[in-house]
């Protein structure tokens, strides 16, 4: 009789353990699905955050150029911050290998020059020095990746002790960001960079 009772208890215990393991397995599977779903959601969020384009960076650059043209160092600093925000959101996977190489070569320089401009809202001359360097990188970037709008590569022969400096503009009309109102019309269009569609 004791053997039957013990056998019965063992069967019930084994059944209980088996059911408990199934519940744990189900809970584990559910937890794994939720974790996977959350991870996918995070990846989607990262992809959405990285949905920016070079056009956003160019737009920030043009805002910076216009602020310097208007001799407005505070607006220039704000636009430079915008460049770095746009740069952080650029979706690099949309670039081909050649575009990506150029972008990788200059993105840190763009970030550094934009940060210098952002950090020096009371020193427009210093902002313009970094704008010169930034413009060189932006010209390389636009030539490699393209832009959604036609741009003009302009040249000021007077800047930097008459060594000259380039910049990008969205209009043919010369408005010099290196001298602003002091010499607004100083410069010439050197190249038209057609929109890439």
Structure in words:
This protein is mainly alpha-helical. It has two domains: 49 residues; 140 residues, no CATH class. It is built from six helices and three strands; from the N terminus they run αααααβαββ. A three-stranded antiparallel beta sheet has the order 2-1-3. Helix 2 runs antiparallel to helix 3 and helix 2 packs antiparallel against helix 5. The N terminus is likely disordered.
Cα shape: globular
Strand content: 5-15%
Please, how many helices?
Answer: 6
Order of helices and strands: HHHHHEHEE
Which strand order does the major sheet show?
2-1-3
Give keywords:
single chain, 197 residues, mainly alpha, 2 domains, 3-stranded antiparallel β-sheet, 3 strands, 9% strand
Task: Please give a quick description of this structure.
The chain has helices at residues 2-49, 54-69, 73-88, 97-119, 124-145, 159-162, and strands at 151-156, 165-169, 188-193. The chain has 197 residues and is mainly alpha-helical.
Topology (SSEs and partners):
Blueprint: H1 2-49, H2 54-69, H3 73-88, H4 97-119, H5 124-145, E1 151-156, H6 159-162, E2 165-169, E3 188-193
Antiparallel strand pairs: 1-2, 1-3
Helix pairs in contact: 2-3, 2-5, 3-4, 4-5
């Amino acid at each position: 009789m004791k053997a039957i009772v013990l056998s019965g208890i063992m069967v019930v215990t084994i059944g209980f353990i088996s059911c408990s393991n199934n519940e744990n397995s189900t809970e584990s599977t559910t937890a794994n699905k939720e974790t996977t779903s959350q991870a996918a959601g995070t990846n989607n969020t990262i992809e959405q955050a990285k949905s920016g384009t070079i056009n956003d960076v160019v737009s920030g650059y043009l805002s910076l150029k216009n602020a310097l043209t208007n001799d407005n160092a505070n607006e220039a600093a704000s636009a430079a911050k915008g460049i770095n925000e746009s740069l952080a959101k650029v979706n690099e996977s949309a670039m081909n290998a050649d575009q990506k190489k150029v972008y990788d070569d200059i993105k840190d320089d763009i970030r550094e020059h934009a940060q210098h401009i952002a950090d020096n809202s009371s020193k427009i001359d210093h902002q313009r020095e970094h704008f010169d360097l930034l413009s060189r990188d932006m010209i390389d970037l636009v030539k490699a990746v393209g832009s959604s709008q036609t741009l003009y590569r302009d040249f000021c022969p007077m800047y930097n002790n008459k060594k000259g400096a380039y910049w990008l503009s969205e209009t043919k009309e010369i408005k010099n960001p290196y001298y602003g109102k002091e010499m607004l019309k100083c410069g010439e269009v050197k190249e038209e960079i057609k929109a890439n569609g």
